[in-house]
Amino acid sequence: MSIAKEFQRLAGLLRKEEPAYVLAELNDLLTNAPGAQIEILSAPSIADPYLANYVAAMVEQAAHLKGGVRPPPWTAGVAPLAQPVFAVPWMALRAHLLLESPVPFRRRNIFVDSTIGDRV
Fold first, then answer.
1. Residue 114 CA to its chain's centroid (Å)
2. What is the three-state SS of 79-113?
């Protein structure tokens, strides 16, 4: 299956499956995708604003990590969240997340650990 088709398939699963597992699979796909394939990804149909922003940020971050790769134009059309969302509920970690979140996530008001993309 092509990267573009697998991306759309996984994005479609966000409506039905546990998002954390699907996002992990999307992360693996984007991490291993050639930059040229990231640039031509079609916009997924994701109704949930948080998940739409999260996926757009993942695509932007993957493009950035490839060096010289532009994210697909549709990512710019995903409006950032109005309220911040933190990956964990603990107030003690919010300062860390504010500082360490990758820029594409911060621009979208999503605060995650910068090791996104790293797998144990």
1. 12
2. CCCCCCEECCCCHHHHHHHHHHCCHHHHHCCEECC
Q: What is d(CA 93, CA 39) in angstroms, rounded to the nearest whole number?
A: 33
Distance CA 80, CA 27 (A): 20
First to last CA, the chain: 26
Percent of the chain with pLDDT over 90: 78
- The answer to whether 75 touches 59, Cβ cutoff 8 Å, is yes
> How high does pLDDT run on average in the chain?
92
Say whether pLDDT at 116 is over 70.
Answer: no
For the record, the structure tokens of 107 come out as 């621009």
Domain boundaries, the chain: 3-111
Could you give the CA distance from residue 90 to residue 72 in angstroms, rounded to a whole number? 34
The CA–CA distances, whole Å, from 119 to 31, 94, 108, 115 equal 10, 22, 23, 8
